[in-house]
Design a protein that fits this description.
Elements lengths: L5 E5 L6 H10 L3 E4 L1 H9 L5 E2 H5 L14 H8 L5 H9 L7 E4 L4 H5 L6 H6 L4 H11 L5 E3 L5 H10 L6 H27 L19 E5 L9 E4 L10 E4 L5 H14 L6 E6 L2 E7 L3 H11 L1 H4 L2 E5 L5 H7 L4 E6 L4 H7 L6 E4 L8 E5 L2 E5 L12 E2 L7 H14 L7 E5 L2 E6 L5 H11 L8 E4 L7 H8 L4 E4 L6 H10 L3 E4 L8
Parallel strand pairs: 1-2, 1-4, 2-3, 4-5, 11-12, 12-13, 19-20, 20-21
Antiparallel strand pairs: 6-7, 8-13, 9-10, 9-11, 14-15, 16-21, 17-18, 17-19
């Protein structure tokens, strides 16, 4: 492209704009600007020319009308290699604009606030900005369009190296970013405004709009012959976590880390979760994080080898010492203290993720030809909403164990069975085709005594055989949703065996 001689700068996010504009001035570029951007540049000593001088028309309508003018649009849209375009500019004395530096009103930030009136949403819809961005991007061969402060340093560096112009790959890359920005901006507006006055109380969108930048290329997917990448808007959660150390994350690491993180968020006391192939093989809460981890690990140390961990507190030195006693793939936690970081750094391949909470979003799964969407399963157990169905009610200790088991059971693949004591899983039966088989698998895998444990089931027992099988292994109480046509038979079996049983009325399938 020809040398950049004139730039129009009008930005909402003023990060780095003064330094960028000064860098352009040092290269001899004439700066045109508007409103608050012009004032910020002038205050910093950067010479600017107001856009109203260029157009011969004042900014008006509370700033709504600034850059929408033929003397601006013509200078951006004219194709330099088209003689008729250049003759038209000369006839109307329209100067060329070689660079457009624009970012937009922060609509998404305003829209994320609670109770924002429609008038304020409308006021934060940018009109001139997207127009300028699209015009410059359409004419990318002749005009550089810059929409992100992140690009300022590299652009200045290339302008210095190339004596005032940019190469075509750079111009094309900037144009693609520009079109992506305006597309995302329009999506954000349409998605938010669709909720205004909407009658649908499901909490699910009328149109599913999934758009996120590619954040990380992965070596492969679930298997080496599959391609994979992580896409994320970096709003928190595992997808937006900061990786502090370790080798690159795999597809399966991320799936397991998310399962672990979702489980650990159930607990308010210090807690640890160990995940293998998306299922908990150990989970416990205790007075300290280290004790919670020790109790989670002892439930199934064999399966814990090569597993993924999650903690709901920052990892400390004592917990880190316990972690280093076995091979662990990855850890998700809110943070790590300096002593823990030093200890865990010895395991150079161990992936450490610092995870922050993310806003609750609908759960999306792909199927052939479409997507399934549901609200997140955030339902918490309230003891007062449960029904004791047996002659013997649970003791206080059994209640606490049942409540703990129910939290874990919610995160086990169905058919799900959890054997537990207060604050500790003892064994897990997951993903079997019949519920009684999950009961048997859980008992078979138990490495700690099952005597005097409780049992949680994510859905009802269709027959009495599941409860009868569990009772053979020493359980004393059961928590399940209820709702089977044979509930009376199951209750009768529990009474005969001297068990306490609670119905929650809520199912927690996880397929």
């Amino acid at each position: 492209m020809p040398q950049i001689r004139r730039a129009l700068i009008s930005v909402t996010d003023k990060t780095g704009v003064v330094e960028f504009a000064q860098g352009l001035r040092d290269l001899g570029v004439d700066i045109i600007s508007t409103g608050g951007t012009a004032r910020a540049l002038e205050a910093a000593g950067v010479p600017v020319r107001e856009v109203s001088e260029l157009t011969g028309f004042p900014e008006m309508l509370d700033g709504r009308l600034k850059t929408i003018h033929p003397r601006v649009a013509g200078g951006v849209l004219a194709i330099r290699g088209n003689p008729e375009h250049m003759q038209s500019l000369a006839a109307h004395d329209i100067p060329l604009i070689d660079m457009v530096v624009v970012n937009l009103y922060q609509f998404e930030k305003v829209a994320a606030q609670q109770g924002v009136p429609l008038s304020e949403l409308i006021a934060n819809i940018d009109i001139g900005g997207p127009t300028l961005i699209r015009a410059a991007a359409k004419n990318y061969q002749d005009v550089a369009v810059v929409v992100s402060p992140d690009d300022y340093p590299s652009i200045l560096e290339e302008l210095h190296e190339r004596e005032g112009d940019l190469c075509e790959p750079t111009l094309w890359g900037l144009a693609k970013k520009a079109f992506a920005l305006t597309a995302a901006y329009d999506r954000a507006i349409s998605t938010r405004l669709a909720r205004v006055g909407a009658e649908d109380e499901s909490g699910l969108p009328a149109f599913l709009d999934i758009r996120a930048p590619r954040a990380l290329d992965l070596r492969y997917g679930e298997n080496p012959h599959q391609k994979a990448a992580l896409y994320s808007s970096r709003l928190g959660g595992v997808a937006g976590a900061e990786q502090l150390q370790g080798k690159e994350l795999s597809y399966n690491n991320l799936v397991d880390l998310d399962a672990a993180w979702q489980l650990i968020r159930e607990f308010s006391q210090p807690a640890a979760a160990i995940i293998k192939h998306t299922n908990p093989c150990g989970c416990a809460e205790a007075a300290t994080l280290a004790e919670g981890y020790r109790r989670a690990f002892e439930a199934d140390p064999v399966s814990a080898y090569g597993g993924v961990l999650a903690f709901n507190r920052a990892v400390d030195r004592e917990t880190a010492e316990e972690i280093t006693k076995t091979f662990i793939e990855a850890i998700a936690a809110p943070g790590y203290d300096a002593a823990a970081r030093e200890l865990l750094a010895v395991r150079r391949n161990l992936r450490l993720l610092a995870v922050s909470r993310a806003p609750e979003e609908p759960v999306v799964k792909s199927i052939s030809g479409g997507f399934l969407v549901q609200t997140a399963d955030t339902r918490r157990l309230e003891r007062g909403e449960c029904t004791v169905t047996t002659d013997r009610p649970p003791s206080d200790g059994e209640w606490r164990a049942l409540e703990f088991a129910w939290k874990v059971c919610k995160h086990v693949k169905s058919n799900a069975i959890v054997y537990a004591r207060e604050g500790q899983t003892i064994s897990v039966g997951a993903g079997q085709m019949s519920r009684v088989d999950s009961v048997k698998v859980g008992a078979m895998k138990a490495m700690l005594p099952l005597e005097d444990t409780v049992l949680a089931s994510d859905a009802y027992f269709p027959f009495a055989d599941g409860v009868e099988e569990a009772a053979k292994h020493g359980i004393t109480a059961v928590i399940q949703p209820g709702g089977s046509v044979r509930d009376a038979e199951v209750i009768a079996a529990a009474n005969k065996l001297g068990l306490a049983m609670v119905f929650t009325g809520v199912r927690h399938f996880r397929h």
